[in-house]
Design a protein that fits this description.
The N terminus is likely disordered. 10% of the residues lie in helices and 44% in strands. The chain is globular, with a radius of gyration of 15 Å. It has 149 residues and is mainly β. This is DUF4426 domain-containing protein.
Length: 149
């Protein structure tokens, strides 16, 4: 929980300062996308009664599971987008892809989107993000590469 809150706060702070890390930012259409991948083991264990214990269907207990967090902002107004539909298509280069719908995650009054991903190979992985905003026609997409450790 602390690592997740830290990551979301870090992303929000970078955006607010206008100095997002170019390595964790995509501009797709008129949407600023800030993303982060964290090994799920770094998020810590939660009791069964804790909301994070069941987030995204629950953390799978293997060292190859990563948590993808995405924060969306309107490029012009820099307002957080809290009503989008976000999908990630993850593919170890040369192998088939896996698609995950990213679920809205509330931290205080901020909405981000997330899902657990299995990154069991050496990579690199191509992660394609697709964003559908209700106030815009169609879907915009962008991608980044990631190497698991």
């Amino acid at each position: 929980m602390k690592a997740l809150i830290f990551l979301i706060a870090l992303l929000a702070t970078a955006v607010a300062a206008g100095q997002g890390d170019a390595g964790q930012h995509l501009l797709i259409g008129d949407t600023d996308v800030y993303y982060g991948l964290t090994p799920s083991a770094a998020l810590g264990a939660h009791p069964a009664s804790h909301p994070e214990a069941s987030m995204h269907g629950g953390v799978r207990g293997n060292r190859y599971t990563y948590h993808l967090v995405v924060a969306l902002f309107d490029h012009v107004t820099q307002k957080r987008i809290s009503d989008a539909r976000v999908t990630a298509a993850v593919q170890e280069i040369g192998l088939s892809e896996t698609r995950r719908k990213l679920e809205p995650m509330r931290t205080g009054d901020m909405i981000s989107y997330g899902a657990y991903l299995d990154l069991g190979g050496t990579g690199p992985y191509r992660v394609k993000l697709e964003v559908r905003r209700p106030d815009r026609p169609g879907i915009v997409s962008g991608q980044f590469e990631y190497r698991s450790e």
